[in-house]
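Hello,

Our lab assistant flagged a job as stuck in the queue for most of the afternoon. It eventually completed. Since we weren't sure the result was trustworthy after the delay, we are filing this so someone can double-check. Below is the sequence as submitted and the structure that was eventually returned. Let us know if re-running is recommended.
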Amino acid sequence: MRPVNLIPREEQPGVRRPLRGGPIAYIVVGALVAALFGVTALVLTENQISDREAEITRIQGDVAAAEARAQSLSAYTQFHSVREQRVATVAGLADSRFDWERVMRELALILPGDVWLTSLTASAVPGAVPPGGTEVPLRAGIAGPALSLSGCARSQQAVAGFVQALKEIDGVTRVGFQGSSLGGATGATSGGGSTTSCQTKSFIAQFQMVVAFDAAPVASEAGAAEVAPAPAAEPAATTPEGEG
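-- returned structure --
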């Protein structure tokens, strides 16, 4: 007959007893795990906040140091700005400066022997007439540098030749002709309104004209240069063509 052990299995020696628990045990374990994760997350968050605060403090220190350095160099920055402004001003003046010396030299070279001037005024802008200067009315329509010329020639043909010669001056873009009249007619007048003394013969033509340099830069400030009026020379006595 087979022996039968009537002792319950969990009461038998050497047999591990099963753990007894219910849902409460799992709840407790879950709560502990959640608390552990919470504490870990809190510690990590506090560490990150501390790191960010330290970084902010460092950045603020760098900014303060950079501002202090910039403040110490502000004098050099101001000096550089003033220097740039002065360089720009000098460059602008150099660009707007017109070479009147060259123009006068070329005018002296092309001036015909049968033409003489009674008034020569050079101005950078219209209306900038120096004391004693004379401006031809056509000058008001020219924005840049121009010459206002008044004088006499031995004939109308000489006046026309002088106009063509003026166009040979370097930089001349146009020659404005105010008028020309022979002796005995209603003569051209100077800026003061009186007839000039160069028209002493009936065949002598008196003229006024403007020589424009439109391509030249316009000066930023009004300025003018005057050449002293040439003395009225008495032309040599000649018999004009067509007269006996």
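-- support follow-up --
The delay was a queue issue, not a problem with the job. The result is valid. The helical segments are 23-72, 74-96, 100-110, 156-166. The longest helix spans residues 23-72.
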